[in-house]
Design goal:
63% helix; 4% strand
Length: 153
């Protein structure tokens, strides 16, 4: 008889353990699925927000050199344009920027024919330098607009 009760006791304990395990699983699985869905949604929103913010920061960063080049273009076209004053102003314009190393401006005449060339880094081209072969010269002439080029190495 003892063995019978021991057997029933064992079965009851085992049954109780199984009931507890299944109860936990039936409650925990839906809760875990809901939590996982919430975490996934929050992560997706955070990534989307940070990606958009980073994109805006990059676009803003890239817009600054274009704005400086456009400002220079407007300045050069003014009737009161004075090359010596302009060179000082252009140096001041780019001195505090980490994204613009050098600013060129020039006219359409070749240097050998009396044309001018200004480089904010102080570089002076040789008299046989042909600026009309350079992409920074040909592209704006084609497009009739100032451009920002990739860095020269």
């Amino acid at each position: 008889m003892k063995s019978f009760f021991k057997s029933i006791k064992t079965k009851l304990i085992f049954s109780s353990i199984l009931i507890v395990i299944f109860s936990i699983l039936f409650v925990a699985i839906p809760v875990l699925k809901t939590e996982l869905a919430d975490l996934t949604q929050n992560l997706t929103q955070t990534i989307s927000f940070k990606t958009e913010k980073t994109k805006q920061e990059i676009e803003s960063f890239l817009e600054k050199p274009k704005q400086i080049v456009n400002d220079v273009s407007i300045y050069v076209k003014q009737d009161s344009f004075n090359q010596a004053d302009a060179e000082k102003d252009f140096l001041n314009l780019i001195k505090d920027t980490s994204y613009l190393f050098c600013l060129y401006y020039t006219d359409t005449k070749e240097i050998a024919d009396g044309g001018f060339f200004y480089s904010s880094d102080g570089w002076i081209p040789d008299s046989d330098y042909i600026k009309k072969e350079r992409i920074w010269f040909t592209e704006p002439m084609k497009k009739q607009t100032p451009i920002v080029t990739a860095p020269y190495v």
